[in-house]
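To assess whether the prediction recovers the assembly geometry, we first specified each molecular entity separately, as shown.
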Amino acid sequence: MGIISNVLGIVAEYNPFHNGHVYQLQQAKQQAKADLTIIVMSGNWVQRGEPALLDKWQRTKLALSGGADLVVELPFQFAVEPAHLFAQGAVQLLSMLGCNRLAFGAEHPELDFEALVANQPTDASSHFKRFDETYPTLFNDYLQAQTGLNLRASNDILGFSYVAANQRLAQPLKMIPIQRRGSAHQDTGIERGTTIASGAAIRKAVKAGEWTVINQMVPADTARALRKEQLISWTDYWPYLRYQLLVSSLADLHDIYQMSEGIEYRLKQAALVSATFEDFLWAAKTKRFTYARLQRLCVYILLQVNRVALPTELRYARVLGFNSAGQQHLNRVKKASKLPLISRVTDDWINGPFRLDYQAGLMRQMLSGVDQDRLQHAVIESS
Amino acid sequence: MGIISNVLGIVAEYNPFHNGHVYQLQQAKQQAKADLTIIVMSGNWVQRGEPALLDKWQRTKLALSGGADLVVELPFQFAVEPAHLFAQGAVQLLSMLGCNRLAFGAEHPELDFEALVANQPTDASSHFKRFDETYPTLFNDYLQAQTGLNLRASNDILGFSYVAANQRLAQPLKMIPIQRRGSAHQDTGIERGTTIASGAAIRKAVKAGEWTVINQMVPADTARALRKEQLISWTDYWPYLRYQLLVSSLADLHDIYQMSEGIEYRLKQAALVSATFEDFLWAAKTKRFTYARLQRLCVYILLQVNRVALPTELRYARVLGFNSAGQQHLNRVKKASKLPLISRVTDDWINGPFRLDYQAGLMRQMLSGVDQDRLQHAVIESS
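The predicted structure of the complete assembly is given in tokenized form:
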């Protein structure tokens, strides 16, 4: 094989892997003239504070058969965080894995993301002290006042965050915004005649068992996995979250990561009176908390993530799967980079830096009975 | 009404209230020439570390219709403890409620309990440091060596503990041992033709749905409650216990009350591989831990009872129910005793001394949806 010059990175959740992702992969590879494509993927919990429908191994298989060469897990410390921290971890990881291109889907790829980043407030705290709006709303208002541009669509916001994180790298990657097709990220409607819908719309169809719709919107492998495998949602975790909220003292709840503004009182009250997770969110919601922020808080409570600040530096890369090209690249990374590559999770990792990722997987294993880390080997895709 | 001179106390769990209890109440009242009978009853968790099948309010109703005049809850801090602490709290409570008689069922009421108490080792720790036997076994071996008497039957052991606790009172009560009828406490067999069986045997019949047996062994009111009400067992709590064991760090588990000898490692391992509570107990069991001790430890984990020593003094009496004679007696106690009598649980109590009892009830409410403390009023039996 020749010299690898264009290594493309994509940040993804694949919850689940659908036709829009297939299209994005194809477009990205073409525009980046990619010799190799690396996916940094959320594990068993996604950025908006929800369990992934399919586990990280099932989603890795789908990503590899959909065109990825290498899939690496975005550690929990970044995966379940607001966009700027999520992007920071993901971009750093792609960079350390030897990527020099980063493609991302955006509602408005024509936006001048660099200009937006240059205009972001240097001291965020002084601008966002209003308590009647969520942070994303205030942030967008600010940018609009500064640049006249609107940054409300969720993939535009993520794109902005990737660009901002990229600018902080010693060797920034070439950024490739790609026009998203189909409905918006959180839009749950399905358009007639299309084969592309948002993840949210597909998850809604899965919940409703609308298999005609699903079959139309996802590759056959994904449809098969969605039928065969145990799918997990907050509904499955709700009894455990509720129990933890009821049994924990207010002092212990206060010590949970990101618990702020005394919301622990509200959460405890809401847990007592709510029958379902949806009821609970509705009862707990305030104007200052987005649903995503509330849901992330719920993940921290369920996993008992303590207020002790999460490490912000990247300490390892957990390899989820690869094909032969991906494996050859991994060997090069091993030689060139100091980043530990985890392909087998030992007790030292579980009781050390990997603990939180292990816990995140253990919560899934508790429900599904399927080991997530201790016994799992990287998925090898034969091409 | 005349002067009340014989106030009888009985310590009970009524899990559930059965014909043996009816017989014991009748015998005790007769032998004590009781003017009034007070029951100190475990709440929603019993001494062996199990949830009561019926909740404390349902059991209070049955006790009142079965002949009790007043039912008071034994606080959790005593109710879920080994026999000597259980007895200490219960006897102290009966004494503070103005009892001067205490009746208890025993397998061998003819035993000289006073002599046994007099012969108990003064320094227990020096005698019981063998790690190949449980404490009860070592204790019995010791007593047998000292007195030639055998103290293996569980109600004899409780009787011994009542007598020991009684001797520590400034004004000891008159003790009235009553011959237990039917099978032994933990014997789960049912004898043909009898109408009395042990609580364990009846719970087993309930689990198996053997209604012919149950109807024969319990009063009609109990049978009705067992059919109508939600019955709770460890099977219902097992998912939550398992989750708590999996999510808690070893350090946090180590801080649980009565966690000792490094058993937290075993419990965590056992939780991962066990599908049912029975599997779990079997996997976690060691020679040094009785099943009762293990089960109590499970309650402490489920309720997150911290190692911070539980208060050993009695701080309140929670009134569960009464008839008019019981109510008149309560009024006398209010005037004569400094012990706070709780009939309504306020936030001050919940966030203060009553917290653990509240938590114990909240865990039941979580499953049944039936409030246990905040909204409940004492049961009033019209006679």
